Amino acid sequence: MICTIKQSVTAINGSSESVFRRRSPLQVPRSSFSPSLPASKENPKTTRLQVSRPLHVASIECFGMLRQTQKKVDKSLIRCDAYEADQSEPIENTKIVAAKRVKIGIYFATWWALNVVFNIYNKKVLNAFPYPWLTSTLSLAAGSLIMLISWATRIAEAPKTDFEFWKTLLPVAVAHTIGHVAATVSMSKVAVSFTHIIKSGEPAFSVLVSRFLLGETFPVPVYLSLIPIIGGCALAAVTELNFNMIGFMGAMISNLAFVFRNIFSKKGMKGKSVSGMNYYACLSLLSLLILTPFAIAVEGPQMWAAGWQNAISQIGPHFIWWVAAQSVFYHLYNQVSYMSLDEISPLTFSIGNTMKRISVIVSSIIIFHTPVQPVNALGAAIAILGTFLYSQSKQ
């Protein structure tokens, strides 16, 4: 008898029922079937498929001949139920799939919205208080404090970690710290839109680092997708009205640092149980410990005190809210992005990241009235298109 898998099947093994999933066609050997297909107790006309060992299938629709009677089996007489191994209800149906898509959509919308809000408040703070090292430190401190309170009050379950976990997290945290500070330095010198245009070139850094340092090879379309990425970023940089070398280099260093962060994370976190929200929380805590002494050495309390008084005198009490908002929203948008990564594939995540940059670039241009030349906008569009093609070519 041939069984073509479609959704699910209740497989009987002796007195117990075992249910398994699979999504490919399967031919079940004749030897695995019992000599007959006995009628079920619930309905004498309904035949239940009985096997001598569990079928590792998701569902079946049976056609064939009964060996003893040589009569065709009516498809309507075969009962094919779909149950989870630990549930009594049918497995994923259309409503569940639709609900999951809505959930992912909410994650994406929240991620993009929080990122836009963070970039707006971050730029406002940096315009009035040009100390990116302290600003970066406050962002990590706010996120760390939020998670420590969440763990202490048991709003979120604290992760179970050991020395090996923190050891493998260390290089990830170093790269994350460098990337975060470099991006903040960039935004303190140039427009938010320009920083994100340059940061859209991150896939080019990823391919080049993987190719020349790790020896990985990629399909030809991946390499071809780098042409519009590099060309678009270069065109946008050349035509930027407020070009600043420190701002440009900060965005480039951020790209490189985040590439290494992703590589270290992929290599070091395999098989680890901490993921999603708690993983980013641990990353923030370790990055905060790394960044704080460097922030004190580079800028220092005296510069911070003078800058703070100047910002308060110019902006007023609203400046405190700006600092708090940019710090909290930085943690929230990163936290939601890691929660999104738990629900989707890396490819979908990279596409979402590309769309996020578009929303940040457009919103920052509108809010800060950033002057944009047509050629500059064209370069940005080409770079974003190249990033999208890169995501597609890696499927």
From TrEMBL:
Disordered: annotated span: 22-45
Annotated Pfam families: TPT
Cellular component GO terms held in the UniProt record: chloroplast membrane
Membrane topology: Multi-pass membrane protein
Transmembrane segment boundaries: 104-121, 133-152, 220-239, 245-264, 276-298, 318-334, 374-391
A GO molecular-function annotation: phosphoglycerate transmembrane transporter activity
Main localization, broad class: plastid
Localization, UniProt: Plastid, Chloroplast membrane
Sugar phosphate transporter domain residues: 103-391
Record has Membrane as a keyword: yes
Coiled-coil annotated residue ranges, if any: none
Keywords: Chloroplast, Membrane, Plastid, Transit peptide, Transmembrane, Transmembrane helix, Transport
Keyword Transport: yes
NCBIfam families referenced in this protein's UniProt entry, alphabetically: tpt
Official protein name in the record: Glucose-6-phosphate/phosphate translocator 1 chloroplastic isoform X2
